[in-house]
Amino acid sequence: LALLTAVILGACSEGPVGLFESLSLETPIDTGTKAFELSTPNFVIEFGGDYYAGVGGLWRRPVSGETWSKVAGAPGDLALSAAMADGKLYVLFNDIDAVSPSIQHTADGTNWIPLDTSTVAGSPLRIFSYGTNLVAYGKEVTATEPYASAGRLYIGESFTAQDSAARSGLDIYDLADDG
């Protein structure tokens, strides 16, 4: 029994400090996943052979890869929502102070083009795709009381309102296309 124990323990040693001590001294490699450990992404979407995720800023990773990296040149501090429509990736960005939302799109993942959201009453809060169309959800404050607001859906890059008037209490978190 003593001989068997010595063989097993000897097999587990690597170098002068032993295998388990050697493993405890290793430094983990950061593959960009630390940003995801304590956060829930606002979105994850596949576009052009990459996954894009909104975790604070905009992150990208090849579909076949493991390493996430922040998208260089992304036009906003916070990536809040994303949609893919008409062969483009759309992202709703905002600044750290949450006062300047913008919807931008890219066809190649590198060059971003801002859209004019001036027809959206209030602020755009979420974007979706519905078939090949971009859909935006905007919400405006309607009174001085807390939470007095009305929401409305807008279709396409020109943000055409889908209702004649904003609907009080309308909150939309997701859309589904039934084909």
Q: How would you describe this protein?
A:
The chain is mainly beta and 179 residues long. The protein contains three helices and 13 strands. Helices cover 11% and strands 38% of the residues. Strand 1 and strand 2 form a beta hairpin. The termini are far apart.
Mean pLDDT: 80
Helix proportion range: 10-25%
DSSP strand tally = 13
Task: Point out poorly predicted stretches.
Answer: none
Strand content bin: 35-45%
| Element order: H for helix, E for strand | HHHEEEEEEEEEEEEE
The gross shape turns out to be globular
Q: Give the N-to-C terminal Cα separation.
A: 68 Å
Secondary structure tally, helices: 3
Q: Mind summarizing the main beta sheet? A: 5 strands, antiparallel
Estimated structural class = mainly beta
Rg = 24 Å
Which features does this protein show?
179 residues, mainly beta, 4-stranded antiparallel sheet
Strand-helix topology:
Layout (H helix, E strand, L loop, with lengths): L1 H10 L7 H6 L9 H4 L6 E4 L2 E6 L1 E6 L6 E2 L7 E8 L2 E7 L7 E5 L6 E2 L8 E8 L2 E9 L7 E7 L4 E2 L5 E2 L11
Antiparallel strand pairs: 1-2, 2-3, 3-4, 5-6, 6-7, 7-8, 9-10, 10-11, 11-12, 11-13
Summarize the structure.
The chain is mainly beta and 179 residues long.
